[in-house]
UniProtKB/TrEMBL annotation:
Residues 18-135 form the NERD domain. It holds the Pfam family NERD. This is NERD domain-containing protein. Residues 237-253 have a biased composition (Low complexity). Residues 205-263 are annotated as: Disordered. It comes from Deinococcus radiodurans (strain ATCC 13939 / DSM 20539 / JCM 16871 / CCUG 27074 / LMG 4051 / NBRC 15346 / NCIMB 9279 / VKM B-1422 / R1). InterPro entries: NERD.
Amino acid sequence: MIVKALEPQTFSDSLRRAGHEAESQLAHYLKRAFEDDPYKFVFNNLRIQRRDETAQLDHLILHRCGLIVVESKSVAGEVAVNEHGEWTRWWNRQGRGMPSPVLQARRQLDLLGALMQKHETELMEKGFLGLRQRTLSGMRRDVLVAISDGGRITRKLDVPEVVKADQVPDRIRETVEQARKQGNFYFTDTELHRVRDFLLSRHVPTTAPTQSQTADAADMPLSPTTREAVGNPALGRTPDAPAAPRADATAPASESQEPPRCRHCQSTDISIEYAHSYYIKCARCGGNTPIKVSCNECDAPARLRKKGAEFRVVCAAGHERLYHTNRV
């Protein structure tokens, strides 16, 4: 099931355009493979924040046993991995070192896992007669690096995470089946839908960078000075970058958030209603969706505050953001 589609974007810079085309290509493969699968949830271009860190996940698959992050790379020439695990990109017969996209994807997954761990009691049910809290400790966490169909891969070291883009759906199926057979962890139906809704609610959209920000990111460290650095010709992809420092606790948080959706049909044509607690009422299918909110600035528990037709998320530290406005 496609939970978050890849947003169409237009880039005047050819490098960023190539990177977006690689993501679009893989999003197409994932849609064709999993659009009708009720137990594999696909998120494209999911951008999450935890405290002062940001991770932009090209593609995330939530399945019964865990998570798979897929890092999409646009490669016009060749990438090589030597026996030490060091990566080199080749373009116009010139080689240049580059950060490992496998490690990059693992850092993204680590941040996402830490965010979920923070909200473990909200996401997981209680097992054994409701007396023992289930945890995320055994959740399967995998990464894949998808090289665009036109690129070449040379390996002196076996890197099983690296595959061509058209091979990704089959590799995902193999990974999920392997996890199922191991039987170490599984989400219940309720937990699976809670995690799906939680991830969607944590998406923080970003504006497209300007032309002046298209520096070569291959040689830049992951530091606050490179938060908008742009990928190189072989990769066409921006590396992860930390978010800007948090605003003062008394200032309202950013209003730019993924809109609340119906958990049944994913429609945003909804209203906030109240019966014992606030919930989402879908105008399209009539379904009800419980509301769980937390502060995107400090991860603290939060509550909804109603003011006229507006509903705002407010935490104890004073951070505040608009959640939804009902039509009057």
